Amino acid sequence: MTQPQIVLSGFGDESANDRTMDQQFSAMSAIGLRYMSIRFIDAGNGIKNVMSLDDAEIATVKQKLDEYGLKIATLGSPIGKAKLCDVDDGNGAPYKPFDAYLEEDVNRACDLAEAFETKLLRGFSFYHPKGSNLEDHYAQAVDHVGKIADVCKSRGLIFGLEVEANLIGQNGSVLARMHEAINNDALVTIFDGANIVMQGYTADQVYDQYVEMKPGLGWIHVKDFANPTPGQLIEHVDEETLKQFVPADIGDSGHLRIMKDLAEFMPTLHDRMTALGAPGVFADMEPHVRGGGQFGGFSGPDGMGVALRAFCKVCDEAGVGYHLRDFEDLKVDRGY
């Protein structure tokens, strides 16, 4: 039996200076991708988060995707990157009463995932008030994420919960515990090495957290971080000041060790995700090599290419298969 390959994708807005459709789609196709994740985009009326696109813009984006031979891997929604409590703690994330949030924002994200013909909706685990103990807010976050997963399940979609600093699910251990507590097959977790190592965790600790996430893992985000103070845990990460993002072959997350394990785990994970309706296991490039922030990052077209080639190098060494566009793809596109 042929070993399943990982499916390469990337956040289109990371690759485009002005975030226009043509810039994003040109960069994604030129570096060899067939899939991309959509987050911020200019569909002709200025840069908008995908959640704010109107019907005409959605139709325009879909037409352009077809022209470039691209499909949407995941809806890069901000669902769950919101406050649990209505407090002014310096966090720029929004707060909205949860019933309204579930009815309006979550259903809107589901509508968009359906419109862009993806089963996968990226999201987060909510912010507890800055300086508070996350355990004091853990049960509330589990309740909220569980209800989001219920909505996604009712729509035939998958909610991917990304590990990220400052949120309830700020490390792999907490995220794995949330996944187990919610116990909904419409909920998977998203591993992101840089989002863990930037908090001061060592490569061994990042690997251990990846292992904890494996029972609920759905896909991975690919970015890495050169940690100036490894082993010194940071209670709150100032995301707007982070400049140490690097390609996956030179960072401190230990991607080679992780990908070697993933090579063995791929058949199980591939079966898990295809059973849920995904085309496979995505490795979604989100490299931030020109800088990051709370609601996104930037790499540029060259930076995205550098990061993709670095990750492919890691995959080659780890024995993880992948596919980039080649001449056979062009022949198919040209009908011969």
TrEMBL record:
Keywords: Isomerase
Domain spans labelled Xylose isomerase-like TIM barrel: 26-251
Source organism superkingdom: Bacteria
One Pfam family recorded for the sequence: AP_endonuc_2
InterPro entries attached to this UniProt entry: IolE/XylAMocC-like, Xyl_isomerase-like_sf, Xyl_isomerase-like_TIM-brl
Gene Ontology terms for molecular function: isomerase activity
The protein's name: Xylose isomerase-like TIM barrel
Natural source organism: Mariniblastus fucicola
